[in-house]
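Fold this sequence, please.
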Amino acid sequence: MVSLGTFAVSLLVFISIGFAWISLSKSASGSLVTQVGNVEAEYAFYIYLDNSRDGSSNPSLSTNECSSGSDDACYWLIENAENPYIFGDTAKVFPDDRFSFAVKVKNIGDFDAHLSLDLRHLVSQGYDIADNKIQVAFEYEVTKITYLVAGTESADVKTSSGITLHTGHFLKNVDDRYAIVENIPLSCTDVNTKEAIVYFDLYFDPLVSGKTQLGVLTNNSNAFENQQFTISQIAVILQKQ
């Protein structure tokens, strides 16, 4: 079992320009990506290096993996599993910014499994009222799911029968767990379905408005300025079929 992934390197490549909105800050300790469940797996975490912050329009690891952390518009493998992650500790995040990620998971257990991914333990800091937690302005979605066979990715299978996708904005009163995808089949023997890649985005929605103390929409994002936002863990869950 290989535990890979921190956001530490990820946003060091993002340079803030102009008005500062929020930063996504340091977690308490430990690895960002962790395995849960009863089937062994190897997994790796990638961030899409993207100076423009438009996200990846054509997700692919097999054809678009970075060769160094200074590259742009490609997926960079995050290998440090021990240190706390920093998400935008020095680089601010602005409305309309989109961040793309990928998690590659291989079933190395003795049983066929179903793969699910969760985002866990959200923390917003710096808000005045719960309605203005910065997390409510962020949307999450799975953009693509492929199987990896001998270094070549399959077609997108995210709409296949049995796979459940979740998308939407984070909520002000739910901080513990958000499932983003469930029930991706991972075989223990069939090389065609033994290793999968899940691509997902986090998006700062500029159409989400803050609220006044009386609960009236302000029709702007000013309430989210200078907040901090932490997603403490991505859970890789493999359960026996």
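The CA atoms of residues 13 and 51 lie 7 Å apart. The longest strand covers residues 113-125.
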